[in-house]
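Entry 14. Ran structure prediction on the chain below.
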Amino acid sequence: MKCLLIDHYDSFTYNVAQWLMSAGVKVEVCKWDSDYEKMVFDKDFIVLSPGPGSPCEYNRSLDFLEKSKGKLPILGICLGMQLMLHLEGLKIQKDFTPVHGKVSSVTLGESSLFHGIGEEIIVARYHSLGFSSSGAYNSIAHLDDIIMGVEHRDNKHIGLQFHPESFLTEKCNELAQNLVAWVKELK
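Output, structure tokens:
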């Protein structure tokens, strides 16, 4: 299985790559502001990396998301999820305490990504922005009133506000295997 990992100049990008490779995925990394559209044709899925700043600063990634709806499965991590929800016109919340390296218990909902994981999971969080509404996306994970995971079956998108690749996240290997199974399910 092949993945294109779009790097938003984030220090976690290569941790995400290692996490994917642990599930047997061949990963190619490219920068978000490069000409990556040509690199998509032979990939099974795309991952939008975490990154600094606000989703509105990443027009090329937003354009790519818009054009790719329903074509290839896409996982968005942290900023990647924020890009998905921003594209839907949802308002970003900035009015909560930033968390960087904080461990939290997140309640999980229905998604093949969480198959066999349970109802709650301890995850690593690194973010200062968030959403309290998921719009057209199904909320698949939350922490109090903060959306921590979304899925849109028609668009073939899953977004996670937390970092599934972190050693602080429980069952990160199972999450990687479930991601691969989700991609196969959509093919």
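Residues 172-186 form the longest helix (15 residues). Will compare against last week's run tomorrow.
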